[in-house]
What does this fold into?
Amino acid sequence: MRHRSVGTCVFLTIITCGIYGLYWLVCLTDDSNECTGMGQTSGGAALLFTIITCGIYSIYWCYKMGEKLDQARAERGVPTGSQAILYLILSIVGLEIVAWALMQSELNRYYYGGDDF
It folds into this structure.
């Protein structure tokens, strides 16, 4: 798992018209699998399913990522929230990049090993 700057990821996604976002999706998936130990779907598979379904899978993916990150919080003794619902709503209304930024921020906390949520 690697620390990634949220601002840089958002900026690169915007200036590449979403192409970097596809790479970021793969990285988020793989990093969350490593962080939580729950590797149901690889990053490559998530990207493939997203492309095949014309983006519909990414809505489901956002929800599942929220569940994964909530479980990671619970395992660390940190109060959980309803991240899955938040990410789902953001992705439905077209603000998926905001959900990704929140996910990356959460994963960056795990990268540093800090539990100061």
User: Anything to note?
Assistant: The chain has one domain: 6-111.
